[in-house]
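Researcher: Let's do a round of design. I'm pasting the structure tokens now; please hold your answer until I've finished.
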């Protein structure tokens, strides 16, 4: 069944995600802060675009949002001409932005006040996952509302899971980023050690990736790391934003995150090297820079 959908935010993730919705036959209206990108998207996928978030959201059954941070989300949802002011009664707001759990609760309350529904639904899988429709989505919200959005989200995701009430999706995404931070640092140190030890790094990865050390990061990032290529993937700037959210939440719930805090500092050093837009696997470049 074709739905009227809106998608707010056409970055490296949102652009292909909205495209999957249009390709599946849904009527999609988009909004982007840079109008030229919204125009290009509409021309490419045959959808439409709104001059404001509220205009894009008008008449939509579900409004999806994927922007930068908490303040960006507030700007396009509860701010002047935000989607909430344009959404029809009973429709659903789904936020794919990686943001704070507090913001999820805030938006849930704001939606309830205007007879709307809310799902926080941060994603994992990066640009590649978005383009290939293979994202993993962690959701927070009411079960019946989630059920109305799950099949739509599977158009760009391989896994869509309800983790609990509003905010649970964001908390789960924090767990995801905490695990990745330590994993990428470990992979960087392993490749660095292999090089120093005079081993063939590719042969090392070929062997250990089939055992307990194997991971998505190892399979998908080892070759670009060995080649010293980092102009791709999930940017260090965004990872630091995410880790800041994790560390702040950790302080609130008294969860100790010593490795996360240390890796966050290492990413700060990568930024100081001019690598703010490098892929998160550039932790290896930081290690080599200390030689």
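Researcher: That's everything. Go ahead.
Model: Designed sequence:
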């Amino acid at each position: 069944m074709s739905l009227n959908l809106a998608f707010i935010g056409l970055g490296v993730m949102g652009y292909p995600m909205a495209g999957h919705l249009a390709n599946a036959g849904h009527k999609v209206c988009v909004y982007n802060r840079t109008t030229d990108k919204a125009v290009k998207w509409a021309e490419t996928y045959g959808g439409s675009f709104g001059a404001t978030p509220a205009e894009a959201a008008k008449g939509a059954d579900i409004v999806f949002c994927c922007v930068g941070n908490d303040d960006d989300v507030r700007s396009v949802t509860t701010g002047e001409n935000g989607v909430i002011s344009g959404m029809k009664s009973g429709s659903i707001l789904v936020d794919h932005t990686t943001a704070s759990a507090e913001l999820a609760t805030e938006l849930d309350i704001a939606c309830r006040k205007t007879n709307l529904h809310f799902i926080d639904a941060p994603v994992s899988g990066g640009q590649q996952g978005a383009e290939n429709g293979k994202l993993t989505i962690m959701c927070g919200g009411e079960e019946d509302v989630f059920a109305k959005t799950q099949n739509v989200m599977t158009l760009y995701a391989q896994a869509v899971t309800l983790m609990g009430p509003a905010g649970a999706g964001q908390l789960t995404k924090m767990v995801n980023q905490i695990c990745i931070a330590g994993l990428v640092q470990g992979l960087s140190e392993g490749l660095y050690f292999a090089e120093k030890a005079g081993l063939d790094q590719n042969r090392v990865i070929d062997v250990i990736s089939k055992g307990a050390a194997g991971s998505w990061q190892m399979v998908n990032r080892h070759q670009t790391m060995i080649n010293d290529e980092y102009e791709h993937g999930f940017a260090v700037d965004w990872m630091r934003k995410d880790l800041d959210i994790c560390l702040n939440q950790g302080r609130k719930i008294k969860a100790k995150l010593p490795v996360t805090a240390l890796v966050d500092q290492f990413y700060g050093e990568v930024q100081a090297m001019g690598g703010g837009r490098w892929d998160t696997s550039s932790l290896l470049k930081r290690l080599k820079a200390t030689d």
